[in-house]
Specification:
This protein has about 290 residues and is an alpha+beta fold. It contains eight helices and 19 strands. Helix content is about 20%, strand content about 25%. Helix 2 crosses helix 3.
């Protein structure tokens, strides 16, 4: 009786008959079978530039309009035009020579850029202000030639980390509640907060727009300085940190966001910005 060898198949053979794909008796063995080839779908062609570059939904996301999922809704709803014609088919591909329009505006797929600003006090988070007040975009004027937008918002008197990008898909991810992006704030109060009130915040309570619960809360330094508090949470509700302390009778004198989605203020002076490193960008894109 023949026994099966314990020696693993190496894929190499010194026998000429085996190397030609046949064994004794002319029968082919399983590992001699050729791999099945699959034909790739034919790409849309352009006379000058070759094949297409990008799907339409990603084109909209890269233009900073919205996320890919939202882009599909806009496309199927007839809000997008290519070369003057409304396109509703999902999966449509865009050529480098195509003219893409959304809301009457011609779009361009720009290089994706990512910046981090240490926002100072006195600037509102908006792209344009009808009252001509100072906005965070005034601080980012010389950042790049691409059109970038703030990710989320910090109110006028809040300082700290604020990210900017033209990557609509990532921006949506970092601001959507379901992704629970981690944020840490350094809070300065008008008076020392008691241990019992810290415990109330940690346990969670109801505000006017629903329940709120933080991940961590504690004094920053020690019990000797109870006016400074560190608070970690995932909520993106408007003015949530200020409202938490106001609910318990405290006034927030200063609010500083020191951590956002893994990014910190290390070596970043107030009012200055820096471009994110490829490593930081990859980490943000891997966040779930």
């Amino acid at each position: 009786m023949k026994t099966r060898s314990n020696k693993p198949y190496s894929g190499k053979s010194t026998d000429k008959s085996k190397s030609s794909g046949s064994s004794r008796g002319g029968k082919k063995k399983a590992y001699d079978k050729p791999k099945r080839k699959f034909n790739k779908p034919e790409a849309r062609k352009d006379d000058k530039d070759g094949t297409y570059t990008i799907r339409l939904n990603k084109y909209l996301a890269d233009a900073g309009i919205c996320s890919r999922r939202e882009a599909d809704t806009h496309i199927s709803g007839g809000a997008v035009m290519i070369n003057g014609k409304i396109v509703t088919e999902l999966g449509t591909k865009v050529l480098p020579t195509d003219k893409v329009q959304f809301g009457g505006e011609t779009l361009s797929r720009e290089k994706l850029r990512y910046f981090l600003l240490n926002k100072p006090k006195g600037f509102i988070t908006t792209s344009k202000d009808p009252l001509d007040r100072r906005t965070v975009m005034n601080l980012m004027e010389n950042a790049c030639k691409e059109r970038i937008y703030p990710v989320g918002r910090l109110d006028k008197n809040t300082v700290g980390l604020l990210m900017f990008t033209n990557d609509g898909e990532l921006a949506k991810k970092l601001t959507h509640p379901k992704h629970e992006i981690k944020k840490i704030y350094h809070v300065f109060l008008d008076k020392g907060i008691s241990r019992s009130d810290l415990d109330k915040i940690a346990a969670g309570f109801d505000l006017e727009d629903g329940p709120i619960k933080v991940d961590k809360v504690s004094w920053v330094l020690s019990e000797n300085d109870k006016k400074q508090v560190g608070i970690e949470l995932h909520s993106g509700k408007n003015r949530i940190v200020r409202r938490i302390f106001e609910h318990l009778g405290y006034e927030v004198v200063k609010l500083d966001r020191v951590f956002f989605a893994g990014l910190t203020k290390k070596d970043l002076q107030r009012g200055k910005f820096r471009e994110l490193s490829p490593k930081e960008i990859n980490i943000l894109k891997r966040l779930k």
